[in-house]
Structures are given as structure tokens and as C-alpha cells.
Amino acid sequence: MMRVKPSAFVMLAYLIFLLLPIYWLLMMSLKTNTEITSTFTLWPADLTFRNYQTILTDPSWYMGYVNSLIYVGLNTLISITVALPAAYAFSRYRFMGDKHLFFWLLTNRMAPPAVFALPFFQFYSAFGLIDTHIAVALAHCLFNVPLAVWILEGFMRGVPKEIDETAYIDGYSWPRFFVKIFMPLIASGIGVAAFFCFMFSWVELLLARTLTTTDAKPIAAIMTRTVSASGMDWGVLAAAGILTIIPGALVIYFVRNYIAKGFALGRV
Amino acid sequence: MTLELQGVGRVVEGRVHIHPTDLVLQGGTMNVLLGPTLSGKTSLMRLMAGLDKPSAGRVLWNGQDVTGQRVQDRQVAMVYQQFINYPAMSVYDNIASPLRIAGASKAEIDRRVKAVAEMLKLTPMLTRKPLELSGGQQQRCALARALVKGAELVLLDEPLANLDYKLREELRVEIPKIFEASGAIFVYATTEPEEALLLGGNTATLHQGRITQFGPTPQVYRQPQDALTARVFSDPPMNFLPCQVSGGEIDFGSTRTKAPEGLPNGRYQAGFRANHLSLHGPGLPFACKVKVTEITGSESFLHLDHQGEPWVGLVHGVQDMPPGMDVTVHLDPAYIYLFDTEGRLAAPAPYARAA
């Protein structure tokens, strides 16, 4: 008789609990609405890709993904670009109020975005930025820049200061040193920071919805469209959910080797 | 080619790192900065390189004031105690990087990198990354980068301290040879008196941010200006005992010997190095108590207590003495330095005067 190790059992149970909702979502996205609402099936009796077809052919659907990807990409780019020199300053220089400033950056991460939704809306209206990608990208910097600074600072502190000095002695100017020598050294840190920026911006909904109306509407906001007078379009909603998971999963797949290092926060 | 420090000092947050220092280094010389850790060797080097700005004084290069000049424009090279290379680049690119920055042609870069790599026996490793090399190879890579640019001021900050003993011996012989041809000014920091003696050239002894003496290495070793210099330039540290000079004789309490001529009467500190103590005569006898014995191959360190003064003796043979044992050690008066109560050298050891 085969003996099942207790640890294997726990692992299996854990995976089932973890993956069951995702499995269910995937199955729902491959069923017809009638099957979803009328019967209970573990496997689609009537396999259909119509739900995906709806999303991928209708611009009002797929533009949601495009919008989300645009502002998330913009935000990641801005956050990292801004955070790199900031983190360098925190890791290399002592200046007045440096510790307080660093802590204050972190507190931004703690405030719920809802607090900022109203002033942001007012502000962005005044500058005519409502319903643009850059508006959401900038708004998300609120929590992504501090996070990126925090992660990058840890990585940079692991790089000995002597490397900087050796580069200056060798004749490197600061920008050239930073791009050519320093950034490759903290590449995994940049990867991890970019990953977190991407994820947090991708899942954030409140600010993204508040600051957009039609042209830059994120996918999560578009999903609410499935509720209509004729009832709920379960299949399309499930398909949209699956497609929302995919970018995150892809990003995780690509940075998975860095992530392990990244959680050690530095130590090159 | 000269590097001149004029009253250069550095104070950080109210603490003095380097006292105002005057120093002139000539081209083509090896200059050793010798001192214990925290004596200011690295601080002084950083001031020479221009990595730190002095809080007082001026740094002159060939007579021109270079104080506060960007380090990029200073034409210096520096090697640290830690093996500092650019980990993301191959060894070839590491060595080539100063030349690329300087805008040398591809052929020129290739020729010079290959020549330096050959000299430092790095040729088979050129395609590897620095972190895939052994410690000695990593440090040779750092040395190669310092060498390839042909800098006129080369600063070596304890470059061999993190290497194992065999490699140190090897590189210690190689480094002066490698750099000799270039005619640059070399500054070499070390904590070890022995290393300073092997490297030769000039030595500046440092103690608590102050240069206590600067001169040709053998002279600083044999004729230290003061007790501090003698202490720094002896390993194990110099032994001291108080004494009294009167009537042409030095009185050590238990024993006495002839005083150098013309020495005024008064109180003095006698100093001598550990290797001049012996277990068998001839010489002045001193009764001590053994604290610890350490055996280093064919010689033994005796840690002694002489009437409350800690002494160290380096004697021949394996000596295994139990702690607390009474022992009489002998000292040839030819090796005794006399310092006055202020610590200044009053009379060098007779053997050193003869040399």
C-alpha cells in the first residue's frame, strides 16, 4: 500500500484551496451563460471560446487592457526613473533630514489611496488631465515611488561605496558610472522594484477609476459593464478576469529568479 | 613630478581625522604609509587622491593647486584592500574601462590590456567575470586596472591585506617591480612594519592622524625620531623601561651600563625591539615573569612581565615555559634606544648609528 506523506497532503490541500477559485474562473470563462447558471459541472459540457472572442474583438473591451497596460507601463517607468537617483542619494549621502524623509516616504505607502482620490480629482481637472493615461500613471506614483525607493535603497546599500570611487578615479562621470556600472550591479533590485510597481499599479482600481471616464478607462472598470438590464454576463466577466491575471502571471514568470533575491533586499 | 601636501588636514564632525600635514612625495618613488588601523592611512590617501576635500591646507601636483579638483581629472589610480572590480563586466572590460573612458582607439586598448594582463598573469582569465576568480586574481585585476591607465599617482591601500600568505609574498615582490618602470609616485599603506621594510623606498609612520616621521625606510626604522614612531615601526611593539642617566651610566634599577657620551643626566625611557632579547647572554640581565609563550615555527614569542611593564621577546628555538615562571632575559646594550621624558629620541641605539 502506498503511504502518503503528511507533508505532501498538506501541500496538496494548500494548492487546492489556492487554485480552486482560479480553476473555477477558468472553467466559467469556457462555459456558456446557460450552463453556468443552470447546472453544476466541473468541466464545461459545451466548451466555448465565444466569451474570449467577445472581449478580443470588441474595442470597448480590449481597449481596457490596452489602457491599463499603458498607464501601468508609464507608471513603472516613471517610478523607477525617479526612484533610482532618490535611492542612490539615500544610500550614499548624509543630508539634513534624510532619515525623516525616508520614513515619510514610507508613510505615503500606508495611507489608503481613497484619501487622495478627491484632491487628485480636483487637481487633475484643473490641469485638464482627467481621462488621460498619464494622470493615472502619475497618481500611482504616490505609492509606487516610495516602494521603489525603499527596495532599491536596500540593494544599493549592498554595493560597496569603493566601487563608486574606483569608477570616478577611472574617469567615469556620475551619469555614465550610474548607467554603465551601477545599474547592472543592482539589476535584480530594479527588476524587483519594477515588478512591485507593475503589480500595485495593475491591481489599483480606485484612483484609476476616479481619474478616467472613457478614453483611459482601465479594464477593471470596464468589467462592471457586464451587469446590464438583461442580467449578468457571467461568461464574459470570467474571461475578462482570466485575461486580467495573465499580465501579472507573465511578469512574475519573467522576474521569478530575481524575486527570491529581491526579498532578501540587497546583498549583492 | 611631485605631490605636495601643504598643511593638509581633515576634520569630520568635530573629530580630527588628519592633523595638518606637510609632505612632499617625489616621482618614481615608493612611499609607504605605516600605521595601525585608524591611524589615518586611508584618510590621508583619500585626501591625496582628491576623494575627500581637506578642511585645511592645499594639495599641489607638480606645483599646481589641485585642491578640490574633480577626482576624474586628477590622473590617479587607487587599489583598495577589498577587491574592487566591476562585477558586471568581464576582466578584459574591467581593465579596458579607464582606457575607454579616456577615448583610446580600439587597437590601442587591446594592445595595452593584453600587455598588462600578461604582466599580471591574467591572460587566461580575460573572458571571465571578476567574481569567478580567486581572491588573488581579483586583486590582480584591480591592480591591472590601476596600472593600465598609466596614472602618475598610484595609491595602494593595504592591497595585500585580504590575501593569503603565499600570494602576499608573491605579490609583494611583484608590485614594486611592476610599478618601478612607470616612474609614477607610489603610495602604499600597510599596518605591517615588515612589509614597509620589504618594500623599501620612503616610509611615513602615522599615529592618530599625524605623521610622526617621514624619510628613507631603513633610516626611519633604525633611527626613529620619537618613541611613537619606534612603537609604530616595530612588530611586536617596542619594549620600554624607565631608566636614569647619571655619571656617564644608565641605571635600570637592577642593572647598569655605560651611557652614550654627552647625554645629560636625567630620567629617560629605554626602548628596544623584541628580537633583541635573548635567553642566553651576553648582555644585560633582566628578571621577568612569563605570561604566555607563542610558538611560531622555529621561533617563540615570550610575553613577559618586567616589574609591571609588558615586554615581548622573540627568541630562537621552541620555548615552552609555563605561565608564572621566572626567567632571566638578556639584552645587548647596543640595541637600546633612549627617549627623553617627552618621548623624543635622545640617543639612537649604538648599532643603528654604526649602520
- The CATH topology of the largest domain in chain A is MetI-like fold
The structural class of chain B is alpha+beta
Going across the biggest sheet of chain B, name each strand in turn.
6-7-8-3-9-10
Which residues of chain B form runs of ≥5 with pLDDT under 50?
A: none
* Percentage beta strand of chain A: under 5%
Strand-residue proportion of chain B: 35-45%
CATH H level of the largest domain in chain B: which superfamily? Answer: P-loop containing nucleotide triphosphate hydrolases
> What percent of the residues of chain B sit in helical stretches (DSSP H or I)?
25-40%
Main sheet record of chain A: 2 strands, antiparallel
Alpha plus pi helix count of chain A: 13
Secondary structure elements and their pairing?
The complex is a heterodimer of chains A (268) and B (355).
Chain A (H helix, E strand, L loop, with lengths): L5 H24 L3 H6 L11 H8 L1 H34 L5 H13 L2 H14 L6 H25 L3 H10 L3 H12 L1 H17 L2 H5 L8 H4 L4 E2 L2 E2 L1 H29 L6
Antiparallel strand pairs in A: 1-2
Helix pairs in contact in A: 1-13, 3-4, 3-13, 4-7, 4-10, 5-7, 7-10, 8-9, 10-13
Chain B lengths: L1 E11 L2 E12 L3 E5 L6 H9 L6 E6 L2 E2 L10 E4 L11 H12 L3 H14 L15 H14 L4 E5 L7 H16 L4 E6 L2 H7 L2 E6 L2 E7 H6 L4 H6 L6 E8 L2 E3 L4 E3 L7 E7 L4 E2 L5 E13 L2 E8 L2 E8 L9 E6 L5 E3 L5 E3 L2 H5 L1
Parallel strand pairs in B: 3-8, 3-9, 6-7, 7-8
Antiparallel strand pairs in B: 1-2, 1-4, 4-5, 9-10, 11-12, 11-14, 12-13, 14-20, 15-19, 16-17, 16-19, 17-18, 20-21
Overview of the structural elements:
The complex is a heterodimer of chains A (about 270) and B (about 350). Chain A is mainly α and about 270 residues long. Chain A has 2 domains: about 1-50, no CATH class; about 55-260, Orthogonal Bundle (MetI-like fold), CATH 1.10.3720. In chain A, about 75% of the residues lie in helices and about 0% in strands. Chain A has helices spanning about 5-30, 35-40, 50-55, 60-90, 100-110, 115-125, 135-155, 160-170, 175-185, 185-205, 205-210, 220, 235-260; strands at about 225-230, 230. In chain A, strands 1-2 form a two-stranded antiparallel sheet. The mean pLDDT of chain A is about 85. Chain B has 2 domains: about 1-225, Rossmann fold (3-Layer(aba) Sandwich), CATH 3.40.50.300; about 235-355, OB fold (Dihydrolipoamide Acetyltransferase, E2P). Helix content of chain B is about 25%, strand content about 35%. Chain B has a 6-stranded mixed sheet with strand order 6-7-8-3-9-10, with helices on both faces. In chain B, helix 2 (about 90-100) runs parallel beside helix 4 (about 135-150). The longest helix of chain B is centred in the middle third of the chain and has 16 residues, at about 165-180. The interface between A and B is medium-sized, with 18 and 23 residues.
